[in-house]
Design goal:
about 190 residues, alpha+beta, Protein Transport Mog1p, Chain A, 8-stranded antiparallel sheet, 3-stranded antiparallel sheet, about 15% helix, about 45% strand
Amino acid sequence: MKPFAPHLLARFALITIALGLLPAVAAAQPKLEMHRAGVSADDGSGWHLAVSSKGSFSVLLPIPFNDFTTRDAATGETTYVVGGKSSEGIKFVAVELPPGAKPPPDLASIPKSLAATPGNKVSDVSRNTKGDADVLTLTVADGSKTLYMRCIQTKGARYTLTVEFPNAYRELVAANKDRFFDSFKLKAKS
């Protein structure tokens, strides 16, 4: 089993570029529409309310953020993203993947796919239901970095929240990850 389909890797690469995490690469990448960059929306507590401009969610981030949409002409998929990277290399990202031509992989396959990558250790896997949402939470670590992930599958979309960080900042992230994950909210329908 492949860890990710090629079009998903292209989309993740574009998200990483938009967050300033990798240098830009040319060629057949999905189209990026930047709505806001380097947004500082501190609510007085050091946290920034990130309301997706085109997506249907909001989340609190402990760092300024970018807000953008990607569109992949090859697959017809659209992704709404808010996220940022701290000076320590800590990345906070929230992504909405609305229904598209191809459904996202089943939540149960995600831990297996991540564990299939050499060097990855998947732990703390839990899955539960909150209202109409199916929620998967897990941790992935390799020798130098860790990723905390929460996937929320609703009838209307899949939302993925991640915190990726160098292992040296584990305690700093531990103090912030729950507030980030728990702050996720769907926008009220108007």
